[in-house]
Amino acid sequence: MHLFYKLGLGFWAALMSVVGHAGYAYNLPEPVTPIARETLHMHNLVMVVILIMFFAVFAMLIYSFYTHRKAAGHKAATFTGPTNRKQWLWALFPFALLFVIDYGVFGIPAYHAVVLYEDTKTDADLVVKVTGSQWMWQYEFPAEGVSYTSRLITPRDQIDNGAVKGENYLLEVDNPLVLPVNKKVRFITTSNDVIHSWWVPAFGVKRDAVPGFLREFWAKVEKTGTYRGQCSELCGKEHGFMPVVVKVVSQEEFATWLASKKPAPAAAAAPAAPASATAAATLPTLPAKAVVVAKAAQ
Known about the structure:
single chain; alpha+beta; five-stranded mixed β-sheet; three-stranded mixed β-sheet; 7 helices; 10 strands; 19% strand
């Protein structure tokens, strides 16, 4: 009776955890970059192939168990390895099939995805430097002279369960990263203190920000909208409070936003002094004795 009580309690706890799993989804997020599409394609391909292999092997096992059962008059074999051509064929065929699947079906698309992911310098339209700190992100557009920080703005009352949690709980910031749509953006990551990791699932990219190192990746977002992620590297007690929010807009909106973020020009120079004052300032100063002599001569 005690065992059934424990099983029931465990089942109830598991059921409640599933019910409370916010944002649960069966598939990956909708891909909005070329890299994310490649990742989704590889994921679906692997799932289809391994499911076919699982059911095929499982069916052969069930067939073999039933057909060669002791009740049907079969006796256990005494050999420990292949002894004839047929047995060698059954041993080598699965190996050859797995070799082709691993290097052909999976290897070629995976290699293409890795090469695509590492191509950071070809035809980049924009460079963004991402610096991780405990616990916020700093974004910098080096060529444009724009730099700012992005921090969590979820109210402390929600974090401490003193208020109802908002729609984007722990995934909202004061200054999101703004990017233009359909432009290849080259990201450079680093960190001021410990290892962080900049991750946006819809982009299909994730790169660690390591102190003392500059690490690169790229993204070309093909759809406007707001995309959310977070730091995925355990970086300290506020690790769960480092969200990433990226707002992708049209090129015109991005140009307007970038202009608003640029620092104000320096104050204009003071107005020029009058010409007479300037001329007087340039005249040499006579010694006091020379002035007295000049007056006496008059």
